Amino acid sequence: MWFGQSPPPRATSVAQLAERRLPFEDAAQVVAELAANAVTHGRVRGRDFRLALHLAPGPTLRVEVSDTRREFGPPAARGAVDAEAESGRGLVLVSALAVRWGTDHGPAPLKTVWAELDLASPISPDRGFHDPVDQYPVTHDA
Questions:
Q1: Long-range contacts of residues 89-96, Cβ cutoff 8 Å, at least 24 apart
Q2: Which among 40, 49, 64 has a CA at the least distance from the CA of 113?
Q3: I need a labelling partner for 137 at 20 to 30 A (CA). Which of 43, 73, 101, 119 fits?
Q4: What is the per-residue pLDDT across 52-78, written as a single tens digit (0 to 9) for each?
């Protein structure tokens, strides 16, 4: 799916995974980080980015975010981030949540940053398949 004026990629991913009764919180965070990087570093006027979710045996979820700024590949995730920095933690977080991640280059100018998550991992916090939106009651003014 290509994103421009579509629903947010994180919400779309949560809906797709929850519909299949698959854990989604870690995947939602990875999608959000990779999509934010595509918007921040991969934006070209008139072009959007593409999000793809692939489920493989294991089960393993592969999240792919493609953009058209091949020349701006992600740096390797670093373990330490400047505590005063306002950004730069996204790929560190992706590296912590995914079993592996990397970058593929397609036909110019395509670049795809991908991450694979082990959905069977016992350490995933979302084993209960709950919707995080329902955790926090919202009061509505009358």
A1: 90/33, 90/34, 90/36, 90/37, 91/33, 91/37, 93/29, 93/30, 93/33, 94/30, 94/33, 94/34
A2: 64
A3: 119
A4: 999 999 899 999 999 887 776 666 544
User: Taking the complete model, does pTM exceed 0.85, yes or no?
Assistant: no
Kindly provide the b/e burial profile for residues 50-72, where b requires at least 16 CB atoms within 10 angstroms of the residue's own CB: bbebeeeeeeebbbbbbbbbbee
Burial 98-129 (b: 16+ CB within 10 A, else e): beebeeeeeeeeebbbbbbbbbeeeebebeee
Taking the C-alpha atoms of residue 142 and residue 124, their distance in angstroms, rounded to an integer, is 38
Q: Is 60 helix (H, G, I), strand (E, B) or coil?
A: strand
Residue 79: other Cβ atoms inside 10 A? 7
Helix (H, G, I), strand (E, B) or coil at 91: helix
Six-digit token pair at 34? 């990779």
- Rounded Cα gap, residues 106 and 109, in angstroms: 7
> Model confidence over 22-31: pLDDT tens digits?
889 999 999 9
